[in-house]
Amino acid sequence: MKIYGDTKSGNCLKVKWTADFLGRVYDWIEVDILQGESRTPDFLTMNPAGQVPAVILDDGRPLAQSNAIILHLAEGSALIPDDAYDRARMLEWMFWEQYSHEPYVAVARFQVKYQGKPVEELEARLVERARAALQRLEDGLAASPFLVGDRVSLADVALVAYTRVSHEGGFSLDVYPAVKAWVGRVERALDIA
Ligand SMILES: N[C@@H](CCC(=O)N[C@@H](CS)C(=O)NCC(=O)O)C(=O)O
Predict the structure, then answer these.
(1) Which atom of ligand 1 is nearest to the CA of 69?
(2) How far is the CA of 53 from the centre of ligand 1 (A)?
(3) Does the pLDDT of residue 141 top 90, yes or no?
(4) Nearest CA to ligand 1 atom 10
(5) Is the distance from CB of 81 to CB of 151 less than 8 angstroms?
(6) Which of 14, 134, 144, 178 has the most crowded CB, counting CB atoms within 10 A?
């Protein structure tokens, strides 16, 4: 398998961590998004969306979208709960991540860390939504060590990617103690600390 990714990107790291956890063999091809390397004609042939992560599976088929890729890689593994309801809850978190967490927590980080925007100049709505997402995680982790029960799943992989670096966008996890403890737990479970 070939993984096209930018190591600055949490979306790309989700794929790396999942492949590593599962012991999959792959070539990592670094794509610098800040240099427009995901928008070249060659790259667009593979992923017309012009984004990383993207993979070429061993049989030559391409696949994009971080959460679709990790779902495919982890098929039949311990990272996906056996129980149908728990599996759906895992997907609930993963869809929520893409619509209500990543667009705020990751975008704030990108603007601060890579575009040099002072934290105080982040758009108020972005900050409000990022805080709401972190609070939603805090509430969701009140009763269980991982997002879906007692074991690490793809929900944790997807959500930890940008949560663990949320301070780089100005959001300290000190005010979200359950999230902070969970980040450590997931990092240890995935061996990414
Ligand atoms: N929903 C997509 C988001 C992919 C995405 O936004 N990728 C960014 C890096 S995190 C990218 O490739 N940006 C470069 C560009 O759009 O030109 C996923 O989860 O894979």
Answers:
(1) 20
(2) 7
(3) yes
(4) 9
(5) yes
(6) 14
For residue 158, the one-letter residue type is: A
Of residues 185, 112, 130, the one with CA closest to residue 153 = 185
Task: Please give the Cα distance from 170 to 111 (Å, whole number).
Answer: 10
State how far the Cα of 112 lies from the Cα of 50, in Å rounded to an integer: 23
pLDDT in tens, 81-105: 999 999 999 999 999 999 999 999 9
Distances (CA, A) of 92 to 42, 63, 80, 105, 156: 34, 21, 13, 18, 12
Top mutation candidate among 8, 11, 30 for ligand 1, by most atoms within 8 Å of CB = 11
Mutate to test the pocket of ligand 1, among 17, 32, 52, 93 (most ligand atoms within 8 A of CB): 52
User: Average of pLDDT values for 179-188?
Assistant: 98
**Cβ contact 17:157 at 8 Å:** yes
CA atoms of 188 and 23, how far apart (whole Å): 16
Give distance in angstroms: CA of 81 to centre of ligand 1. 27
Q: Which residue has a Cα nearest atom 5 of ligand 1?
A: 51
- Decide: pTM greater than 0.90: yes
* 183 residue type, one letter: V
What three-state secondary structure class fits 39?
Answer: coil
Q: Reduced to 3 states, what is the DSSP secondary structure of residue 57?
A: coil
